[in-house]
Amino acid sequence: MMMRNASPRSPKNRIASLEHRRRRLLSIVLDTRPLIIGTVYTGYQRCGKPGCHCARGRGHPKTLLMYKAEGRQRCKVVRKADVQWVRAAGQRYREFRAAVRALRALGAKEVEALMGLAHSRAVYYT
Ligand SMILES: [Zn+2]
Hints:
Blueprint: H1 11-29, E1 39-45, E2 60-69, E3 72-77, H2 83-121
Helix pairs in contact: 1-2
The structure holds zinc ion (ZN).
């Protein structure tokens, strides 16, 4: 059997780099800071006060949180004092979702790399 040097694209190196990526993605998923399962966005609301400038425009900007509760879509205005942490917690949820998606895709790449390992070890009986 022939010995092979580990090239940058060898199956072992590919597996090591996929594992590195997996650890980075897991660190996002295993983060213990709170997250909000929902979507935070800026909406506009008219206050209804007579003579307010907003009556002519699209309204006052409001931070809104969309979330599901008991199977129903809900929308809540976020208080000014809470905007910063609610946005950060919403962002963490987006990152969590993206990491879970990436981990799922990584699984298929790992299987492919592991099969590459089998091919690199394969000997042919003739
Ligand atoms: Zn107004």
